[in-house]
UniProtKB/TrEMBL annotation:
Organism from which the protein derives: Nocardia brasiliensis
Protein name: Methyltransferase domain-containing protein
A GO term, aspect molecular function: S-adenosylmethionine-dependent methyltransferase activity
Coiled-coil ranges from the UniProt annotation: none
Example GO biological process: methylation
Record keyword Hydrolase present: no
Domain of life of the organism encoding this protein: Bacteria
Length: 110
């Protein structure tokens, strides 16, 4: 069963261990406290649960709306934050889809 909930990344309205997969699509770059939100994502995932984030790839010198997404360095920094929050199997993938390029960070709750 798929159930949609609305909340902030820092305070998810979900019970401990209730989530199999958590998705954050084009949102992490808006989170006010990324490092503070990751323990909350970890809390709601069941053991073995997966966390997937996807952000548009942007140039390091992008400004305005063109900067909404991640540079390669930002994707790697986010992956390091996931590791520091005790996620395992963390990896960063770059995906090119037509004229769009995306960064995906995959992580697993141990």
């Amino acid at each position: 069963m798929i159930r949609w909930e609305t909340g902030t990344a820092e305070s998810l309205p979900v019970s401990d261990g209730a989530v199999t997969v958590a998705l954050a699509v084009a949102t992490v770059h808006h989170w006010p406290d990324v490092a503070g939100a990751l323990p909350e994502v970890l809390r709601v995932l069941r053991p073995g649960g997966r966390f997937l984030t996807v952000e548009r790839a942007v140039a390091a010198d992008a400004t305005g709306l063109g900067s909404h997404g991640w540079t390669e360095a930002q994707a790697k920094a986010f992956a390091n934050l996931c590791r520091a929050a005790h996620f395992t199997e963390v990896r960063v993938d770059r995906h090119a889809m037509g004229r769009f390029t995306m960064w995906a960070v995959h992580a697993v709750r141990p």
